[in-house]
Amino acid sequence: MMDSIVELQEIPVMRVRADMKGRGPSAAFSLLESKLPSLKGRRFYGTFRMLANGEEEYYACVKMLDGDDPGAMQLESGLIPGGRYARRRVVGWERVVREGRLPALFGDFVRSLGPYADNAEVRPSLEFYRSRDELLLFTPVKPDAPAEIAGRR
User: Fold this and answer.
1) How far apart are alpha carbons 113 and 70 in whole angstroms?
2) Regions of the chain short of the pLDDT cut 70
3) CA dist 109 to 23, 37, 82, 106, 115, Å?
4) Is the dihedral of CA 93, 51, 122, 149 positive or negative?
5) What are the residues whose beta carbons fall under 8 Å from the beta carbon of 11, sequence distance 6 or more?
6) Residue 80 to residue 1: CA distance in whole angstroms
7) pLDDT for residue 1
8) Residue 53 belongs to what domain range?
9) pLDDT at residue 124 in the model
């Protein structure tokens, strides 16, 4: 199968930082969802990057809509950076997460990009929760990455 290369635009979000030494991303998403008046029509993302000090940084994010007030909802605002990303589709993501396989799957994805993988210290890798069954993984790639990359599955 091929992973495709896409150009993402910057995405303004409201977010909650996950405690990666505690309850992790699921707790951050639960807190984020509890602050929203409705989940209907919302686009949810997870952002991940390794910091220079070796720590993991993960944010549960929701795309901002007109009229959202992060301060009133007690949420941090931020931006998901645009640019070129490799994209891989994951079907059945809830099972993958429940079984703890998402980090390894993401690691395999990044390794499959070889020399085209970009330093995720500047731009994070992304999870886009497209539906209850489909997850899209995005990871930064260098400007010279071809339009499709043969990913090892």
Assistant:
1) 36
2) 1-2, 120-121, 149-153
3) 25, 35, 19, 5, 13
4) negative
5) 45, 61, 63, 79, 80, 82
6) 27
7) 47
8) 2-150
9) 93
Distances (CA, A) of 142 to 59, 83, 150: 23, 9, 16
pTM of the model: 0.89
Backbone angles phi, psi at 19, to 5 degrees: -85, 95
The domain tally of the chain equals 1
Give the sheet arrangement for strand 11-17, strand by strand: 76-80, 11-17, 56-63, 44-50, 125-129, 134-140, 83-91, 2-8, 148-150
CATH number of the domain at 14, please: 3.20.80.10
pLDDT at 50: 86
pLDDT the model gives residue 121: 64
